[in-house]
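agent> Task received from the user: take the single chain below, predict its 3D structure, and emit structure tokens. No templates, no multimer pairing.
agent> Plan: (1) validate residues, (2) run structure prediction, (3) serialize to tokens, (4) report one or two observations.
agent> Step 1 OK, no nonstandard residues flagged.
tool_call: predict_structure(input=
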Amino acid sequence: MKKTKSLMLLLALLCVGAQAVGQSCYWVAFTDKQGATFDPYAYFDAKAVARYRQCGADLGDSSNYPLCGRYVAAVDALVEEDFGQSRWLNAVAVEATPDEIARVATLPFVREVRPVASEGQPAGCGQPAAGAGDIPSFYPQVARMEGDLFQTRGIDGRGIRIAVFDAGFPRVNTHQAFRHLRDSNRIIDTWNFPNGKADVYGWNAHGLMTLSCIAGMMDGKRLGMATGAEFLLYRTEVETEPFKEEVWWAMAAERADKQGADIISSSLGYGKERYYSDQMDGTSYVAKAAGMAAEKGMLVCCSAGNEGTDKRWKTIVTPSDADGVLCVGGISASENRYIHISFSSYGPSADWRVKPDVAAYGHATVASNLSDSKVASADGTSFSCPLVAGFAACAWQASPGKTGAEMYRAIRQSADRYPYFDYAMGYGVPQASYFLAGMGAKSPSEPTFEFVDTAEYVLVRLRARPASEYANVFFNRQRPDGRLDRYGNFEAVSSDSSCLRFGKAALDSCRLNVSYLGYTDSFVLSEADRLRYQDSAADFRPFAASLENGHRHISLRTPADDLRAGRRPQFMPEVYFQLGSSFRTATAEQRLHGWPVTTHLGFRGAFGLSKDYSLGVGVEWGRHKYKFDPSVQNQLDEMLNPSIEGVPERKILRRDDFSLELFQRVRLLPASGKGLYWDLGFYVSGSIHNYIIRSKGTLGERASVKKELYTYRSPKFLDRRAFNYGITTRVGYQWIALFLRYRLTDIGASQMVPAVWQPGNFYINLPRFEAGLQLSL
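)
tool_result: status=success, residues=777
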């Protein structure tokens, strides 16, 4: 699964994505109105009292009470200015610096701090409430699935038990977002499978955030829909992701079955770290466990994955590939645009079943791990999954007596594109209205487009323009066996009249399905056209045009290409840089002056025979610098007899290698990418040597200092003149590694001498061992 991060903290000093640096304005909302007294008849004008009676509102509603004077005074003492108050919001508006508002947020009676341009809603006339915190309100992630329809009918998942599998649940036992669960003792069971104990309130904050998308509620404003459900919290994940996690997942499913869970919400998935895409067919052990949970009557909701932008793995992950498991993808969190969010994994399953099944926002407001009173923003299908799980709990409450399998089918049918589907967003976003209408067949909407059959083309002419600025026209080509081999979308704009054109030669025996603004229709060739084009093999290239703006862009996908992205075998290239040094490993080796520096730059590729074993090849350039004591005459000096002016300052033997390497790679610990790995290989190098002497001399009567450089290029070798070979090994994690290299050939031992020189006249044996760090891309 894709990783989540906090983008905006409501209490923090971020406004429109940037941190405030001066004074800003905030609402400071209080927990209650302690000690406030109120006489509506003394407070309201007589005409106002009459209006209340007319509409049936409660004159004594708590939203009408004044703020607690003690609370207001305490806040005023800490800020620059108090410039307004709201009884309905139970809040005071202040101007304050970041440091000042941070101190205000720590006051025990402060419920929330947010920028003044907030979405807080007061209780309205005709909407009686027991307190300001009971005002029906929700975040856009809830509204997108018509969560307001459930909420206004008091449907909150009551009576449904939900098991949440994740990597930890820090702050769930203290965060305000779950106070309603704690106060009513609706966290029924907890178990930490990696540690074998009941404590789950720690470790990775992922579970804190996913749970908030199911049942979180901050001051009456819902982060998720199932605020009335009961919960089982199970930790099944650890940071390093060993193979044991899938076992713990299966054990958690059994415990959830034992504890009476109705729904499992799992934002965990296993894919490219351990599998190939052709294994995403429901046959992994964790997928089998999920399938059995579904067979035993539970509704299992799993994330599709966050690999949509990964060129090596675009498809879904297991156990979302299991048959009968509700696989949830992600859409962009936009009120105007209905599009797949880039990172969400694509379907179908490897055996071509519809995956994802449905979709929800892949960007959500969640409980923050930074404070018990904050929310934050996060991205990932990790959040679309629990949003749908919370929706499912409410849908089940609204449809008592249904089985898990029936709910699985009903949630797919409730989606806003059904019966249309594709492998990016499944059937679309589930809608509450379907369940409140009795789960009957959807009434067809008014046609929003029409097919126009011409001699060579099928035109899709749009009848309706989007109410907002944009609306997508979705289309696919469906084979007779039900599979989609192409699908895509075209974004219609409210300001123009658009049409799509499909060549008949590309349809052959396939069905063209189109969905636009809730209306779906299909087109098939006539028998005469089918016979005419049956051998055409034309490519499916739709054309979109508008009368006002000419040609418009079409997004088009081929699912077979996505499935192939993670199939075996796999070639994994990398460019790397190594920095190291040579070390003496025997007394016979030449003692060098200072640390000899070695650098390597190369390209390497590993060909995966399995997920944990690869064979590879690499090419590289390397430079070795062997430093000698400049004040001592060495054998090379005696051999070359250089005519040097002045005092030698530096003496370096430089070797440039051009190498070919063959290696094997064993992955010791799986992770996205290389994980923890060990390489062992053999290399052969062609070398060029240079002996470089730098000296200081004098020039003329003024005795000025002059640098002299003497370079003796490519002295001849007597033994293995230009080639050497050896073994190399690396141990690394992802992009950083420790490398070791040992040369098996001699460099020295009567080498680098002219042909007239006798081999035994001097001896210089250079170090063989090299070690250092490697960075790779």
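agent> Step 4: summary for the user.
The first helix runs from residue 40 to 43.
agent> Done.
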